[in-house]
């Protein structure tokens, strides 16, 4: 009896492992607006689409510009979820500028927005640190950047022809549902083509 039970347990474990999605890696790039150079790797991040946990594999902050030109302070941050398909955001280099008063307190946070297929469809950047604290690399060192994975939620669908609930004026009065009543046009819309047909036919004669 123990052999069939052992085989059944092994099959269940194998099925659970196969059904659990592996972590996904994504590469974030940045490109100065005033430069025509190719995008440079900003970070390489792995994330779990189920638990929404993430880990920073590598992170290289962009070099701060000493120019007074406003365009020199702007960079594009994003990713290529598909070839020739860029998704990203326009940001300022000041987001990556370390604080001189409280070092480590202003670690930027990268936001990864996932679609229904667990792909990154939008990238965001914030100068505020994450509430979960500073993330660490695989070597256990502070990564210098935080990552938050956000899953998109389906939009609310309006419910049509739903009864209206009238709020009670007094605390002791019970709420009352007012039944939905169709308007005159909704009741007799089918008469409009007939009237129009009679009007057109009568005018021709």
Q: How is this structure best summarized?
A:
This protein has helices at about 1-20, 185, 190-205; strands at about 25-30, 40-45, 55-60, 75-80, 85-90, 110-115, 120-125, 145-150, 165, 175-180. By secondary structure, the chain is an alpha+beta fold.
The whole-number mean of residue pLDDT values reads 75
Radius of gyration: 29 Å
Residues in β-strands, percent: 25-35%
N to C succession of SSEs? HEEEEEEEEEEHH
* Helicity level: 10-25%
Low-pLDDT residue intervals, each spanning 5 or more residues: 13-20
The biggest sheet, with number of strands, parallel, antiparallel or mixed sense and barrel status, is: 5 strands, antiparallel
> What structural category do the secondary elements indicate?
alpha+beta
Number of strands: 10
> What spatial form do the alpha-carbon principal axes imply?
elongated
**Cα-to-Cα separation, first versus last residue:** 93 Å
Query: What's the number of helices?
Result: 3
Q: Which sequence of strands runs across the widest sheet?
A: 3-2-1-4-5
Tell me what the structure shows.
Helix content is 18%, strand content 32%. By secondary structure, it is an alpha+beta fold. The chain has a domain at 21-151. Strand 2 and strand 3 form a beta hairpin. The chain starts with a helix and ends with a helix. 14% of the residues are buried.
